[in-house]
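dumping these here so i dont lose them again. two proteins, back to back, each one seq then structure tokens. dont judge the mess
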Amino acid sequence: MTPETTRRMAGGALAVSAFSVALALFAYWRTGGSQDAERAHAVLRADIDSLREKQTEAVAYTRASLDAAYQTSHDRLTRLRELLRTEKDRAEADARAQLERAEADAHALVTMVEAEARMARDASIGTAEQAERALSSRVRALESRVALLRAKQEVRRAATLADNGKVEAAAGMLVAVADRLDEAQARMPREHEVALSSVRAALQAALTSVQAQASERGERIEALLSRTDALVRSLEESEDTAAGRAGTPGRKAS
């Protein structure tokens, strides 16, 4: 047998072997192989269905959380409006304008919260969450502003007590003002914290002068009121900006 014949026979055997392997693979695909593929597809479909179900649940949970957040803001504004009505009834004339401005902002925010809560049902999750965070921040800033206005009222009452010689009562009232500033800070945007620190310093100076019955206690109290007013105006301007309106020109501090 020549080498050429041997090569031809080997090549033929190789071709037969390759054909046999191809037939075997085809048979495997037609039987067990196709079944394995179908099982793999079934598992994949189940995984996709599970992921879709989890995604649906996550979206539903997020939307329910948004509804709850909007309701929380609405409830806080409702309580704030009731508080403002009470504060206005006993406020001095020169403080009433700021309380009325805060009340108007509360009314406007209630309307916005209600509108955004309705629109959130059709908006994308990201858009709805961003809108809710922005409104929640404005509600908290308004609460901070009202706390400062209440602090002003208490400072004025402390001044009256001090003028009437009731030093201990006046000092106690100023100590209570510190608690009111804590309340304001808990809700205040961070960019206003430096100004709040200045108010705290003025409060400490006023308290010290009242306790010492110093002659400059009136000046210290006026300085405290002035710094508090400046912070209130800054918060008002921030709300003007957030609401997309120009600040009220010539608004008089009280």
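---- next one ----
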Amino acid sequence: MNRQQTEDQPYNDEIKGGLYFDDFEEFKNKSSDNSLLYYSFQQSNNFVLYLPSTEINIICQIIDQRGSITNIQKSLNISKKQVTFNNLNIDQLTFLQKISWIFEILIIQNDKQNCTQLKDEIYNYIQQQVTSDVQSEKLLAYQTINLYKKVSIKQANSNSTRRLLEQKYQNQCYNNETSLFIITNQEVTQKNSINISSLTESSQKVQSQIVDLIQLRINLENQNSQSNLIVDSQLVMMIKTVTQILIGSVHLIDEQYLIISQNETSPQYYEEVMKISETLIQLIENITIQISDNLQVNGQVLSFYGAILSLQLQKITKSVYNAQFQIQYDYLDNLIAFIQKSQLKVSFNYYNLSQSYRTMLQIYLNRSDFENDQNYFVKSFLTNYLYTGSQINQLQLQYILQN
């Protein structure tokens, strides 16, 4: 097609890249987007890409003046680079080159000497870019950090015979021959003492980054709501990109919980670590509020699996909910537009750090023998969204039931 001879010009192009085939499949199914946005929409279709030595899916999204979007996908198999990391100076690399090299080291060249130090230097540089005044660089930095965390977890899981969310030896199994349970000792690990100053600083940094993303999404939504007659397709795409980055940012929270669970907390810091943990949970709930608009009713479950936490979110109609739990129809069901279900599971129960909380629960339940689960913290929500007339007012939805 000669784009210069069509009525739909001018065109704007953007380039994305996905490191894994399943990420590309999820992008096509619109269930998630873990790609890197190398170039946001621009009228020039000349792009310079720096890619790691792996099979990568490149997606070119083309938008015409009418707002129609066309996706062109190409799989590229980049041959392995022969490099000496001693001679690689990151100060001489562009931002896109740094991103290419961090995944080159993480996925391909991780057996090379001196590569770990270089990878950490590049990662620290990318973390600094989240404060960039250039929005495209800020978003690409967030995408890179989220994908870096996801790839790291994927590699840790593939290199281990243990499950991702529960990295402990199985403590009991059933023997069919003897009809007895065989109990084995749990893995004994030596934990380091938690550095409360470092934990506080890193948690505040995560909080600042996520709040920044949420505010950016709110600003984009407000900007989009001002154009009631004409749909700005590029702005809508940008909102979707920020939303996907927010979903991926749960990896940052997951990493903080991993630090807490793998280190020993001194008694004098119990309450402080407890407060940090509660703040992180609140961040996840704030993210859930922002991303729930992307869910289709009776559509796919939005799932996130990290190193220590998992998050699931779904919207269903009341009739589907009734069928799942064998509940009889009630005429009041007609008032419910849909039900939103969410569940957060953390393979570490930080409430055990708080004696005051345990005492409060014992009093509330009137059970002096009450104990918190040592391994899991689970928080579930069930929310009814009501019709506000003949249609749903999506700007003023409020829940009336929460469990």
